[in-house]
Design goal:
Blueprint (H helix, E strand, L loop, with lengths): L1 H10 L4 E3 L5 E3 L8 H4 L4 H23 L4 H33 L15 H5 L3 H5 L3 H9 L11
Antiparallel strand pairs: 1-2
Helix pairs in contact: 3-4
């Protein structure tokens, strides 16, 4: 009974398994994922790839617990980084689409507004800063700033 369970459990997690017809199939493909290859993909494709990477990571974790080959254990780091790359691309494209959606709108979500500093965010805008009352405008036109010429020695 134990042998049957052991064989059934690990036959699905082996590096190269065989189909029902006897053809060899690869369950783990180990090519480094590059972000430039991920960017043109659609969100559904990225999520599908993310699921594949997560299942691959789980198989590698099983191999780690059962004392698998060192080559498999070294791949865990690469798979984790690949998952992070896929998630980063998904989040960046989502935020980019939100920026496009809110461009030109009066109100934006807080995370899409410029961060800067608290003092700068509360400062008057340039339009508010340069605004003058009617009385001040008249005073400036009728009594302009005097210009003095300084004689050099």
């Amino acid at each position: 009974l134990f042998f049957f369970f052991f064989f059934f459990f690990f036959s699905s997690f082996c590096y190269s398994c065989f189909d029902v017809e006897g053809r060899e199939r690869r369950t783990l493909k180990m090519t480094k994922i590059k972000t430039r290859e991920l960017r043109p993909k659609k969100k559904t494709e990225l999520i599908k790839q993310l699921e594949e990477l997560k299942t691959e990571l789980s198989t590698l974790r099983v191999a780690q617990v059962t004392g698998g080959a060192p080559s498999k254990l070294a791949k865990i780091k690469e798979i984790r980084r690949s998952i992070a790359r896929v998630l980063t691309v998904v989040n960046q494209t989502q935020k980019d689409n939100l920026r496009k959606f809110y461009k030109g709108k009066k109100y934006k979500p807080l995370d899409l507004r410029p961060k800067k500093t608290r003092a700068i965010r509360r400062r008057l805008t340039t339009k508010e800063f340069n605004a003058k009352t009617l009385r001040q405008q008249k005073r400036d036109t009728h009594f302009p700033r005097r210009k003095y010429a300084v004689k050099s020695l």
